[in-house]
Amino acid sequence: MTMDRRTFLARTGGLAVVAGSGWWGLDVLGETGTPAGAASVRTTPSLLVGTPIIVYIDLQGGNDAANMLINPNDKWYYDTAQGHGAIAVAEGDLLPLTGTPYALHPSLAWLASRYNTNNDVAFVRGPGENVVNEFSHFAAMHYRQVASFTGAVLSGWLGRFNDLLAPNNPFASISTQGVHPALVGATTSVLSVPNIQYFDFNVGWQWQNDWLTAWQAMSAPGWPAGSLTRSAELSLSDTFQAQSTIYNTWNDTLNATFGSDQIGQQLAQTAMMISAGVPSRSYVATYGGFDTHGAEVSAEPTLFSQLDAALQAFFTAIAHTPRANDVFVYVSSEFGRQQTANASLGCDHGQAGVDILLGPKVKGGLYGTAPNTDPAARLDDALVPTVDFRSVYATILNHLSGNTAVSKEVLFGTYEDLHCFA
């Protein structure tokens, strides 16, 4: 993006510093319309108990939905010529979902048990897009992140949600690996928090005190409303407020209950912040490795078992907090994979996938229509989506806001609510 200096200063107060875990950033957008004389440090926003909170897990690379949510009665799943064949999971190893013909991959034991006992796990079958039939990771991710196919939209769907409902909240969105594009809005903050323990300023000892003092002085109140200095002042004060609040949520005991893998650690950071009452309603964790063109039978058990263990640890960690009933997890990927296994014991890029919603306010069950697996019904061997992914977003946004007008504005139109929430 080309941006002149004036525009840059007007729009951002971004600050990147070196921390113990590497680079992290605070992408904090400034406010230019605050009345003159208003306090520089905004009051920390509160989040009433009962307010829904989303934890979005983005499975990047294209999750093989057919090997996650499995229908053993589908003859094309086990077919060696036009199905998963050698990479299909043996029927005797599957974890049945009570009352359905479906089962889960054997590495998703906790998730299967949660479905069968709590009735708060929803599987949406066949989500995807039929607008451009995109098989590119980057294009498909972009469409999912911005929820638009026009090419003119650069803000994310959760970013636009926060622009409407949390316009002055420095904690509006939190990403645990970089800045996730789905969270980018026009006016709201995105915090990147890969590791709470190192979420601190780290500068050379010889200028540390002077450096921090200078930045703190620049955040002092008194600049005219609408000025660039006022915008910078508010951005800096938000940065200091966010840093200190997040840093103080570190919990050794809670962190020790999670695995050291990437999804385990990202959900550990999320659980600590939620447990401590950080007033954010949207968290995003990014879990890569799902581009399984080859060796899928060896990759999936690790990917799925780490996801399963991280979800179990997360819900255990927040179970006795005031937010326990407010949080729900959304698991999705940019697309599924093809139905026919390739010669490398993997699958190439597909279309229709599977989305998961889970949490105390979720109505467990199967939603959407299963894609037709018959070879004649496929698109370049990919399963044709049966649910517009924006319907899943609308379902989520309607629950988050309690107002269908919000989802209509965020998604630039009206999409079916799947009624996955109680």
Briefly say what this structure is.
32% of the residues lie in helices and 14% in strands. It is of the alpha/beta class.
Can you offer a commentary on this structure?
This protein is of the alpha/beta class and 422 residues long. It has one domain. 32% of the residues lie in helices and 14% in strands. It contains twelve helices and 15 strands. It has helices at residues 5-11, 75-78, 109-118, 137-146, 157-165, 208-218, 228-247, 252-255, 262-275, 296-318, 389-401, 404-411; strands at 15-19, 22-27, 53-59, 69-70, 95-96, 103-104, 121-125, 127-128, 173-175, 190-192, 282-287, 327-333, 354-358, 365-367, 387-388. The strands form three sheets. The protein has a ten-stranded mixed sheet, with helices on both faces. Strands 4-6-5 form a three-stranded antiparallel sheet. The longest helix is centred in the C-terminal third of the chain and has 23 residues, at 296-318. The protein is globular. The two termini are 42 Å apart. Mean pLDDT is 88; it is low at 1-40.
Amount of beta strand: 5-15%
Q: Number of domains in the coordinates?
A: 1
Instruction: For the record, give the distance between the C-alpha atoms at the N and C termini, rounded to a whole number.
Output: 42 Å
What class do helices, strands and sheet pairing give? alpha/beta
Helical fraction equals 25-40%
Are there runs of 5+ residues with pLDDT below 50, and where? 1-40
The largest sheet is: 10 strands, mixed
Mean pLDDT: 88
Helix and strand pattern: HEEEEHEEHEEHHEEHHHHEHEEEEHH
Oligomeric state of this protein: single chain
